[in-house]
Specification:
- The protein is globular and about 90 Å long.
- Strands 1-17-16-15-3-11-12-14-13 form a 9-stranded mixed sheet, with helices on both faces.
- Among the domains are: 138-295, no CATH class; 303-404, 3-Layer(aba) Sandwich (Rossmann fold), CATH 3.40.50.1000.
- The protein contains 20 helices and 18 strands.
- Helix 15 (417-427) links the parallel strand 15 and strand 16 (431-435).
- By secondary structure, the chain is an alpha/beta fold.
């Protein structure tokens, strides 16, 4: 559990504190262990990490506990007055607890586990290249945006005035969905519900009422969601942007939509989507981006020394390593020579370029081709994958046959949840590690006093509403409605603190995002950078937190012992 959850739970489980809360709430003695304040503060283990958490399931006695607050008339207060007294006491207790909650409690260099995994079982390490071994500066997104924008103008005859639009670094976040037919960019949660307030047409938000009218509510049916790989195909009208390279694409789509709307130009959203998609593809396929990066590699690649240190560490421990990337050899060679040195291929047992993932993991028909240092494709049949050689295309089934690297002894790292990780874990049983660079920024925000204060009171207020809604008299209902309005006003702040348009990559207001759901399914572990491996020895076992189900107790005895030891 997080320190925030542990502290609040442990403090309120203290007998004296419980007795005071029970006395204040006028709870019958037999219900002290389910007292209002105790119930109020219990949270899921990850509630303080990426949103305002999950509410407690209704427990036997909770409604009785809430009812008891306003059932007694011994103090002479009216029902509304007693509710406000509970509100003020809860707020006071929250303020008293805030100074005790440690800041910087989550280390951005931590490796987080979705599934138990021990490094002692891993014999072979595999890597993607872009945003896994090679991390890029913000200049790259500006470069991609500018080139694609100019391609739209030059090749697709879009208006010249589009050149006035520049890349907006903090506009979009990864994992968003785009409705191709409606030209709407939005964030969707793990249950296919649109997070209201995060729907954008162009560069401007769409009113909640309009969103609800267009979708007949907030739910997006499965048949129009993106397909397995996040693409809009076979009747799916939604496209999910899961690639870090997609941030410039989302921004360009939004800018062009904005231009057409500002100038009252009638256009077909489907054509716009396809043209932008083609322009972005040309930036990569035609080598425009690759040549620009190679010409000024120090401007675009960062953290190279950390990736080198990881590879060196694994090599020194006798681990097998391989590289499977969609990027071309010249580009990878230039980047890896910058990161590691000219002898970078000595570290890898197998190097595969232009693999065309995710097709590489599914299409059995494409054989490997050997590539010379000068980029010449050879025609000889490949009987084994040799160290020091470069191979192009191929498929995973042939890779498995030639190497014998199967099952859970293989750990593969990549940044794309679908293209890099999904098939490997679902079909082949490899262990998978997701590289999520955005994690570092989000953890820094989570560690701030502002976030801790906001979430502590939001959770407390939500608990009040949950339990006091049982009072149906008009005066009590008016109080609860006022609390609901306060909560509704606070919740957008939990979004804006991460990104003013779309909020956290990992959470809607309380549910996990669709991105989070896929991350937890397809990645055994995840981290902000491959360099996080440097903080662990190669015998380390990663354990996921036991996140309580809604019907389970959200506080485990072992957590009390561990946290109590830390407080001493």
């Amino acid at each position: 559990m997080t320190p925030l959850s542990l502290l609040l739970s442990s403090l309120l489980k203290h007998r004296e504190c419980l007795q005071k809360a029970a006395a204040f709430c006028q709870v019958p003695p037999g219900l002290h262990h389910r007292s209002f304040s105790s119930c109020l503060w219990k949270q899921k283990s990850d509630a303080a990490q990426h949103g305002d958490g999950q509410l407690l399931s209704q427990q036997p006695g909770v409604k009785k506990c809430a009812a008891s607050v306003c059932s007694s008339s011994s103090d002479g207060q009216d029902p509304a007055g007693r509710l406000w007294a509970v509100y003020n006491e809860s707020k006071r207790r929250t303020e008293d607890l805030i100074p005790l909650i440690p800041t910087n409690s989550v280390d951005p260099n931590t490796i987080f586990a979705n599934n138990e995994m021990s490094l002692r079982d891993i014999e072979i390490y595999g890597f993607d290249y872009d945003y896994t071994l090679a991390f890029y500066s913000s200049h790259l997104h500006t470069l991609i945006f500018n080139i694609a924008r100019d391609i739209l103008i030059t090749n697709h005859r879009y208006p010249e005035d589009l050149r006035k639009y520049e890349y907006i670094p903090d506009f979009a976040v990864r994992g968003l969905h785009y409705d191709v037919q409606k030209a709407l960019l939005m964030k969707i949660d793990a249950f296919h519900y649109i997070q209201l307030g995060t729907v954008y047409r162009g560069l401007h938000p769409v009113r909640d009422e309009e969103v609800i009218a267009m979708y007949e509510g907030c739910h997006v049916p499965l048949e129009i969601m993106s397909d397995f790989y996040g693409k809009s195909s076979h009747g799916h009208t939604m496209k999910q942007f899961m690639d870090i390279f997609s941030l410039p694409e989302m921004t360009l789509l939004s800018c062009v939509n904005d231009f057409f709307m500002r100038h009252n130009i009638d256009y077909e959203p489907v054509h716009l989507y396809k043209d932008v998609k083609e322009a972005i593809r040309d930036v990569h396929v035609k080598g425009i981006m690759y040549r620009a990066v190679e010409a000024d590699i120090g401007k675009y690649i960062c953290y190279g020394e950390q990736s080198h240190a990881v590879l060196k560490k694994l090599s020194e421990h006798g681990k097998k390593m391989f590289l499977i990337t969609n990027s071309p050899f010249d580009f990878v060679d230039r980047g890896m020579s910058y990161i590691v040195g000219k002898d970078w291929r000595d570290l890898f047992d197998v190097v595969i370029v232009q693999a065309d993932k995710p097709s590489f993991f599914n299409d059995r028909r494409r054989p490997f081709r050997r590539v010379t240092d000068k980029g010449t494709l050879l025609w000889d049949r490949i009987h084994r994958l040799e160290k020091g050689q470069i191979y192009k295309q191929g498929n995973l089934y042939e890779f498995l046959r030639l190497t014998g690297w199967r099952g859970s002894k293989v750990l593969y790292f990549g940044d794309h949840i679908y293209s890099d990780l999904a098939d490997l874990t679902l079909k082949h049983g490899w262990r998978t590690g997701a590289i999520i660079p955005e994690l570092r920024k989000e953890i820094k925000i989570i560690n701030t006093k502002q976030y801790v204060h906001m979430m502590a009171w939001l959770q407390a207020l939500t608990g009040l509403i949950e339990q006091m809604q049982v009072h149906r008299d008009p005066a009590s209902q008016a109080v609860v409605e006022e609390w609901i309005r306060e909560r509704d006003a606070m919740r957008p702040q939990t979004k804006d603190i991460f990104n003013s348009q779309f909020g956290s990559l990992f959470r809607t207001y309380h549910n996990p995002t669709y991105f989070s759901r896929r991350l937890s399914r397809f990645a055994d572990i995840y981290m902000s950078s491959i360099s996080c491996l440097l903080n662990y020895n190669l015998q380390h076992t990663f354990f996921p937190r036991r996140t309580p189900l809604q019907h389970e107790s959200p506080f485990w005895p072992e957590h009390t012992l561990i946290f109590g030891a830390k407080l001493q």
